[in-house]
Design goal:
heterodimer; A: mainly alpha; B: D-Maltodextrin-Binding Protein, domain 2; D-Maltodextrin-Binding Protein, domain 2; six-stranded mixed beta sheet; 18 helices; globular
Chain lengths: ~280, ~425
């Protein structure tokens, strides 16, 4: 154990590196928060300050006055939750089979999953649009959810396969020896150990769908169905001009659900991992 | 098991509320979708109000207002056209229409528009939306590039203040920039050029010196050539930045908004910007800050400059083109065009609207813009196929390097002409 302990200077270095990384990650968010509370003249100041000199909620009022942010957030929430739940429901059994029963088919399937990650949006969007049109799913959140599920499924599958492989097969064999059937083993032994993986995968699918812009832009025609990332672009004009204050206010609010979901689920990820570690 | 059932029920509930939208009830009412790119509050309010007025007066033709975004309009329209789901009435800019027009996605408006509208908008504006034989959009708002100046610095320096009748020449502009920089002291510059999009600035202002860059041969093919007239404006900008140092190198990669903090702080005396930036300046300028709007410098062709007006088009696939054209006729009545122009802080293309007294006031430089409007011409690249690729792959990096001093005029010419013509040739193979 002592071999793992870093010396004093090394530990300080580690903390400094960690601090630098945290600052790097937090900078855009803190700047966003600061901008959201600044009045227009402060936004055009040559020497911008971190803390607004004359903080105001006017940007939030303007953002809500000009755009239907709540309705858009509701649409995003429906799409993101549905996409996350369905993606996990489909990917979990698939990942189990692919990880446990290795064969040519499984290798080919996982290979295809990796390749499919390389397809750019623009390559798939027009065929996808035509398929959804034939299914009468253009301009529907259901169609959008379907796209999000398909889009996040490969990576979700990839993630879950790793978690399944980390669960020792001996545990399942022991359960079988004790008389548990296949379903019972999966439900009572494997599934609880996969908890952290499922939560992490759901989180990934949720955040991907919550932030997604291009599919939502193209697939949803009616204003009342538009999602939050699409509505946020309404604060942008031509040639990169932006209504910066309201945009920052709306973008700050848009990041909150992701942070809340992560904060709630993070404990489960950590707790589940520890539980698995003790069992193995 | 119960949990699983609850989950399934929850999902079913979620998705039943999200079914595909029907095209509308079969009640004999024509429904048109109008995708507008208006984004500033004043402008959105005017657009919505006009739609409301139309709907109140025309119960048989209902227009639905849909807000799009300048940021993503091209990709969104392209996909919608391919999928047969494009809006009936489309707001865009003339320099974005070429591919859609040549692709057959936009209706030819000549047989649809009223004589009044056709006659009210000058021929030079119609040229911006004429592709091949057809007119594929109504140009309705436009913005010249002007110089926004710090009034106090300008007046205290004693330099001649230009007017549309007596503008600065490009040579005079260079000299005045030297005088101003000297007066302003160290760390300050006479002019900040925000050249994040250097190609449109160079080409559009280049018209004032007689530049055109794109030449159409008798066989209809377009080639690039960099004549002496084409080098006047780019050469002056480079001299300001590299030789005279009266313009800072740091703003070359900036957008217009990025230069405003320095402008408000008195770091720069002048910033060449699009006419609509006045709104941002009016909103953000510190109290007591005095600014004025000056015409861009003139060359051999006077104050001429290129513009790509905002446009309204009708989708070829729309089953209600006649009704859409009737809406456009209402939307672009002179009094409505004035409201749209004031809302967007731009100039109307219609001659009747442009004559409106509200667009000729000294306040916020409206009069300067209105005086320059007569000199506006179609942007040189307007109908050139392959222009977007030439701009992104060849011209933008070439101009950026030229303005920063990394390459000289010879290398700029080689890239724009030799490399550029190679790109254009690919689009013009018969």
């Amino acid at each position: 154990m002592s071999a793992l302990k870093a010396s004093g200077p090394a530990r300080i270095g580690q903390y400094l590196a960690l601090l630098a990384y945290l600052v790097f990650l937090a900078f855009p968010f803190l700047w966003l928060v600061s901008t959201a509370f600044k009045p227009a003249p402060e936004l055009a100041s040559l020497h911008p300050t971190w803390i607004p000199e004359d903080p105001t909620a006017a940007n939030f009022r303007q953002a809500f006055d000009e755009q239907p942010l709540l309705r858009a957030a509701g649409n995003s929430l429906v799409a993101a939750v549905a996409a996350a739940v369905i993606a996990v429901a489909v990917a979990t059994p698939l990942a189990y089979v692919t990880a446990r029963h290795r064969g040519r088919l499984a290798s080919a399937a996982t290979g295809w999953v990796v390749i499919s990650q390389a397809f750019p949006f623009v390559l798939v969007i027009i065929p996808l649009f035509l398929i959804l049109k034939n299914l009468h799913l253009v301009n529907s959140v259901a169609g959008l959810v379907m796209v999000y599920v398909v889009w996040s499924l490969p990576f979700a599958l990839w993630m879950l396969m790793g978690y399944v492989r980390a669960v020792p097969a001996e545990l399942e064999e022991a359960a079988a020896v004790d008389g548990a059937g296949r379903i019972r083993t999966l439900v009572s032994v494997t599934a609880p150990l996969l908890g952290p993986g499922i939560v992490a995968t759901a989180l990934f699918a949720f955040v991907t769908a919550w932030n997604e812009f291009f599919f939502a832009l193209v697939l949803l025609k009616s204003p009342e169905k538009q999602t939050l990332p699409v509505v946020l672009t309404h604060f942008l004009g031509a040639e990169g001009v932006a209504d910066l204050g309201p945009l920052a206010a709306a973008a700050f609010l848009a990041t909150l659900p992701s942070l809340v979901v992560f904060a709630v689920l993070q404990r489960r990820i950590t707790g589940g991992t520890l539980a698995g570690a003790v069992k193995s | 098991m119960r949990r699983a059932l609850v989950l399934v029920a929850f999902l079913a509930l979620l998705l039943t509320g999200c079914g595909a939208g029907a095209d509308g009830p079969d009640d004999g009412v024509v429904r048109l979708r109008f995708q507008s790119l208006a984004w500033q509050k004043e402008s959105v309010d005017v657009n919505r109000q006009l739609v409301k007025e139309w709907n109140a007066a025309h119960p048989g033709i209902r227009v639905e207002y849909v807000q799009g975004s300048w940021d993503s309009v091209h990709d969104q329209l392209l996909t919608s056209f391919e999928g047969g789901e494009a809006p009936d009435i489309i707001h865009d800019a003339s320099d974005d229409l070429a591919d859609f027009a040549y692709g057959g996605y936009l209706a030819d408006l000549r047989p649809l528009l009223s004589e009044r509208l056709l006659a009210d908008i000058p021929a030079r504006s119609w040229e911006t939306t004429t592709f091949g034989e057809g007119v594929h959009g109504v140009p309705f708002l436009q913005e010249p590039r002007v110089i926004i100046a710090n009034r106090r610095i300008l007046e205290s320096s004693g330099v001649r203040v230009p007017t549309p009748e007596h503008p600065w020449t490009w040579t005079e502009f260079r000299g005045i920039a030297q005088d101003l920089t000297r007066t302003m002291g160290p760390g300050r510059h006479a002019v900040a050029w925000p050249l994040k999009e250097p190609v449109s600035v160079s080409l559009n202002l280049g018209l004032s010196a007689g530049g055109r860059l794109f030449h159409r041969g008798e066989d209809g093919r377009v080639t690039v050539d960099l004549t002496e007239a084409d080098t006047v404006v780019p050469g002056t900008i480079r001299d300001l930045v590299v030789t005279d140092r009266t313009a800072p190198r740091t703003t070359l990669g900036s957008g217009g908004s990025d230069t405003l903090p320095g402008f408000f702080a008195g770091k720069y005396a002048m910033v060449p910007l699009g006419f609509a930036y006045r709104q941002q300046i009016a909103q953000q300028a510190p109290e007591g800050f005095e600014w004025t709007v000056l015409p861009a410098p003139a060359g051999a062709a006077g104050l001429a400059q290129g513009v790509s007006p905002q446009t309204l088009s009708i989708a070829e696939a729309s089953p209600h083109k006649k009704e859409a054209a009737a809406f456009l006729d209402f939307f672009l009545r002179p009094e409505n065009m004035v409201r749209l122009a004031l809302g967007d802080w731009m100039l109307p293309t219609g001659t009747t609207a442009l004559a409106d007294p509200s667009l000729h006031t000294a306040r916020h430089g409206w009069a300067t813009g209105a005086a320059v409007a007569r000199q506006l011409r179609p942007a040189p690249a307007q109908s050139v196929r392959g222009y977007p690729e030439w701009k992104d792959k060849v011209a933008t990096p070439a101009f950026q390097e030229y303005y920063s001093g990394a390459i000289d005029a010879g290398e700029l010419r080689r890239r724009l002409v030799t490399d550029g013509n190679r790109v254009l040739a690919r689009y013009q193979r018969k």
